[in-house]
């Protein structure tokens, strides 16, 4: 499956392919901004003062697909509770749960009909409380999804709003007259295909929806809406949530004058013209809301975190708006997830840019999630995929960014899109077939063992089929194999926790001219060992040597910490080592 058909990627592609002038302009701005930013001591903070989310390994769980406990073929909260020991053993500090609130499931939970209950197919409030309690006992925090941009059309707020033009909640959503008979108010398009406006015959006005018709957008210019959503946040914080991943945050506001969006050349997978979402995305008003939300969460103990789902091609702009440490601590770096092939220069440039961007405190990296094809096949070359999975794991876990895993990546789960259109569950996959097969491929059930449905469910068939690859790729098999991807993740996470250089160290790019090997130093701010990392991003053996004197490293050898494949020596001379194809080297230096 091509990443290009996916939501975020499509946005960047549109920019890159169709608006080169805009991109150049953005780059020039970035450089200017970088040059004028003062260095900060932030990356040198020590753990005594560092907040928990800075060192946390976050694990995204799609509850529908993680573990079914009642045999209905759908994952649930008690299933997650049952697997907490596995997560503890893996070394996870926090789980992010995608929505499990009552929902008609048009967008599998991102269409919420009641924000302060649990959907019966996922369990009860008592199940949630037990999950939160059991997670806490294991020092695992629970981050929830705050779907603030839109509700389900079955939410009582919307039902009231649509009931009449003068209903008190009318203004909670965005209602407008059509331009003329049968004509929507303007040319805005839904991210999921077709016009972003749907006519409601009852009151003969259109309502706006950035996503599916069944997901009407809330009107964030209305203060009652803000209060209602902040109350939702308070509700979950007081039940033990450690913070929120805020869904589609960049889409909260639209141009009040309803100006038409610029049309770009070409069409997308849904047959619509490509469009720049200029008047419906990243409006400056979003920042104001984030500040208010920050105040709300700061009223709760435990230093709750805010993570923003926002895509912005310019990293400085992204962090200015979504993460200056005064509101969102962790702005998701979509750019990182979108470097779509192994390229040392591409990753070096990006990590550099992120690292030197002092507007933001802490980068946030991920490769896979419930909207994007999995990394195992995205970066895999068809022959060395398992080794490449270990390499990308190192890239994710050994920089100073807060890393986020997506369930199943630690066992090398494979993206498995439906073979036939009639099997597709995700509505955009039906609409976009076969160009865009939707997101089912990255949402297949977690593979636990070799029993029925890979141990996910005892039902005959699970809500999505388990890929045949489960027989070799599952937790039970990989736990026993010392060379498995799973055991590699465990070692990496342990190392990240125990090695002060990896935990606290700054990021310093090394060997900048190398076309094939990406290498960096994590310089320990305290006395003691620092860490060097080298990743061979090519299918050939590559030699690398380091001169680290200017970085304050005096010894000429490294002590290998985690390496592979085929590296078992006790010492590595900095004058040169050879890395196997897609080989990984992590070593301690002093
Ligand atoms: C976010 C979610 C995605 C959902 C969309 C609409 O992008 O990650 O799964 O479809 O918002 O809520
Ligand atoms: Mg179930």
Main attributes of the structure:
single chain; 590 residues; eight-stranded parallel beta sheet; six-stranded antiparallel beta sheet; 18 helices; 16% strand; disordered N terminus
What is the topological layout?
Layout: H1 7-18, H2 20-36, H3 52-55, E1 58-61, H4 77-82, H5 84-90, E2 94-97, H6 125-137, E3 141-147, H7 156-163, E4 175-176, E5 197-200, E6 205-208, H8 223-238, E7 243-247, E8 263-267, E9 273-275, H9 285-298, E10 305-308, H10 315-322, E11 330-331, H11 334-337, H12 344-356, E12 364-366, H13 375-379, H14 385-397, E13 402-406, H15 427-432, H16 475-480, H17 485-498, H18 500-504, E14 506-510, E15 517-523, E16 530-536, E17 542-544, E18 557-564, E19 572-573, E20 577-579, E21 584-589
Parallel strand pairs: 1-2, 1-13, 2-3, 3-7, 7-10, 10-11, 12-13
Antiparallel strand pairs: 4-6, 5-6, 8-9, 14-15, 15-16, 16-21, 17-20, 18-19, 18-21
Helix pairs in contact: 8-9, 14-17
Magnesium ion (MG) is lined by residues 68-70, 72, 74, 76.
